[in-house]
Amino acid sequence: MAAPTLDTSRPNYDGTGKGVDLDQLRDNITWIIAMLAGGVFILPGWATTASGSDLSEPDYIELVNNDSASLKMKFTFTWSSGNLTQIVCQYDKGLGAGYETFDDGTIAISYDGSGNFSGATTS
């Protein structure tokens, strides 16, 4: 038996026939998928593109769903002296509202005086 496949077209975002619990379940799954994708910026069934004038420090990375190009994820980066200091994680449901930032989707990254990673906080 094959492993189950991820179907991001279910449940639909149009709001028909869903309760609050189903909405939250869908949102939780979307959040988990986006955070996993943010770890490596690769997700099966999604095309990944880096953008910016210096791709060693990209402005953002965007993932677009291969089956529904209106579903997108975007990770926008802030850099300081070669260190990544902020990541903003966003999702576009494909309903015309554009990108929405996840709750706790802004990650502030800190470094010690030697430039070593010292922690991160979300907001």
List keywords for this structure.
123 residues, alpha+beta, 6-stranded antiparallel beta sheet, 1 helix, 6 strands, 17% helix, transmembrane helix, transmembrane, membrane
Give your account of this protein's structure:
There is one protein chain. This protein has one helix at residues 20-40; strands spanning 46-51, 60-65, 72-80, 83-92, 100-111, 117-122. By secondary structure, the chain is of the alpha+beta class. It has one domain. It has a 6-stranded antiparallel beta sheet, with helices on one face. β3 and β4 (83-92) form a beta hairpin. The protein is globular. The termini are far apart. 8% of the residues are buried. The mean pLDDT is 86.
% residues in beta strands: 35-45%
The portion of residues assigned to helices is: 10-25%
Q: Extract low-pLDDT stretches.
A: none
Structural class: alpha+beta
Count of extended strands: 6
Question: Could you spell the SSE succession in H and E letters?
Answer: HEEEEEE
How far is it from the N-terminal to the C-terminal residue, by CA?
41 Å
Write out the strand line-up for the largest beta sheet, numbering strands in chain order: 1-2-3-4-5-6
- Give the number of domains: 1
The global form is: globular
Specify the number of helices: 1
The overall pLDDT, averaged over residues, is 86
Biggest beta-sheet profile: 6 strands, antiparallel
- Roughly how many Å is the radius of gyration? 16 Å
Transmembrane segments: 29-47
Keywords: Membrane, Transmembrane, Transmembrane helix
